[in-house]
Amino acid sequence: MKIYILEIHPLLQPASQPFPYPAHNHDYGVEQDFLIWIKKQNLLLTSDIEEADWLYLPVFWTRWYLNHNFAIDGNGMQQLIDLTSAAVGNKKNVFTICQYDGGPNVLHEHLLSFLAARTEDKQGIDIPILCKSHLLSPFHIEKKYTASFNGAYSTHTLREEMKSKLENIDGVYLGGYLPTRFYLRWLGFRSFNRVMRASFISICPRGTSMNSFRFFEAMQMGIAPCLLGDVDARPFKKYIPWDEISYYAEDVNSLEYIIRNIDKNAAIEKGKKAKQYFENEIYYQKWCKYVLMELEEMSTKPVQ
User: Fold this and answer.
1) Looking at domain 145-282, what is its CATH homologous superfamily?
2) Higher pLDDT, 19 or 23
3) pTM score of the predicted model
């Protein structure tokens, strides 16, 4: 398989964005990460577009949208459409990497999107939504919560239902909005890090998008994450044994069942394996190979 990197206007690769998210993150994400990675794959790349099996559109979608106030009231959208259309044209087998909630939000007939934060079913191919690793205390933290969550509840009705149904269950910790400063998360008595590491399961409910940074942050900390969402958006399910390293609940009743029937020893083992997978298969520069596996499989499918 050969990949050709499409030439794009510099405006589609902003050098920075006005703020990072989550708050402790660097101004860096999977969009920049994949471009850095693929440029190292000399045997994979071709300078001859006719030789290529796939064409890569290296737009920094997240930075572009943040720099254009989320394209509210169509701010900058015509520019985005025009510039991406100039790059894509009528070309086939074009793919892009997008972290921005909901995807690129431009319509190009042959554009395949790998999405870290899709908002609709059958929208694209799921990839991890990653951020800077948390600094962890070397001291052991005793488990005191069966399951925990820190965050907002207004971003999806499942979160509101979760709070209403689970907040009075023994062993479940449900916090509120997270501090915006990382040092407050760390130093606070009920900090994001400390509460998560004191839990057997980290509840990771979908919000605006079907996945969350929290899912992969839990993996980094060695805590078994449980994705709560109407769609199972755990990435690369054909290649990663998610049921061995995480949980999935399609609704709050399923989540309650997992919590009430948890095998705590099994949860600890899942957390340990989750950390190993995160470090070796999921984190920056590690996940990119799975994009190639997806593309390779699509290239070899018989014509219908």
Assistant:
1) Glycogen Phosphorylase B; (3.40.50.2000)
2) 19
3) 0.92
CA dihedral 36, 39, 45, 46 (to 10 degrees): 120
pLDDT at 303: 41
Q: Reply yes or no on whether the pLDDT at 190 is more than 50.
A: no
Domain assignments of the chain as residue spans, ordered by start: 3-131+284-300, 145-282
Residue-level pLDDT at 251: 97
Task: Write out the two tokens for 98.
Answer: 């997008």
